[in-house]
Amino acid sequence: MIDGLFKTHIDPLWEKAARPLAALGLTPNQVTLIGLALVIVDVAAFVVHASPTLLGLGLVVAFAFDALDGAVARLRGLSSRRGGYLDAIVDRYQETAIMLALGWASGAWAAALLGLSGALLTSYAKARAAVEIPIDNDRWPDLFERQERVVYLCALTILAGSLFRALGAETESLVVGLWLYAALTHLTALQRARRAWTMLSRADAEAPLPPRRAGPADR
């Protein structure tokens, strides 16, 4: 929702922050992979220090860096389909690593798995629609997209390791936060699926698919 509604205002800020990286000659794909490496290092360090606050602060840095790949692409004129594909795959691996870390820290593996599956389904709902019909990638202002998930996870981990630790409820806050995350991701996946269903229904009404011969999967 943040990216969809405020993209025209946010992109110039990212481009300003990305100028030093572009000046260094970094490619968008290199920035994407560095962002992935930062998340992996942050998660690995969390296994050692077990501080949600440090994990959250590390995620702030990693995600801020990761968000600059598109800005570098625009500044250097290096936008590509391969880069967009790489960015999408890396995003999913980042979320997987973070959910594994939070599941390990809280013991709430069911919530972590549901949260991860909701995030993946949110992405898949749009990607699968794009296989069927052309879609506008920037016109999906759904409730809990990646930007919202990033902000939420950073806030959850920082607060759990500071405010809620002081209250003696660090683990409990992580558990509750993960269940809320799971609910919001699946709500967004269903919201996105509903939009895709409406778009596909309209496309079917305007240009029905011709009958096809039955294959092995249809028998």
Descriptive keywords:
219 residues, mainly alpha, 0% strand
In total, how many beta strands?
A: 0
List the secondary-structure elements in sequence, H or E.
HHHHHHHHH
- Determine the strand fraction and express it as a percent band: under 5%
Mean residue pLDDT: 90
Percent helix range: over 70%
How big is the Rg?
19 Å
The CATH superfamily is identified as: CDP-alcohol phosphotransferase transmembrane (TM) domain
The name of the CATH topology is: Four Helix Bundle (Hemerythrin (Met), subunit A)
Unreliable segments of 5+ consecutive residues: none
Shape: globular
Would you write up a description of this structure?
With 219 residues, this protein is mostly helical. It has one domain: Up-down Bundle (Four Helix Bundle (Hemerythrin (Met), subunit A)), CATH 1.20.120.1760. It contains nine helices and no strands. The chain has helices spanning 2-23, 28-49, 52-66, 69-76, 81-106, 109-132, 146-161, 163-166, 170-206.
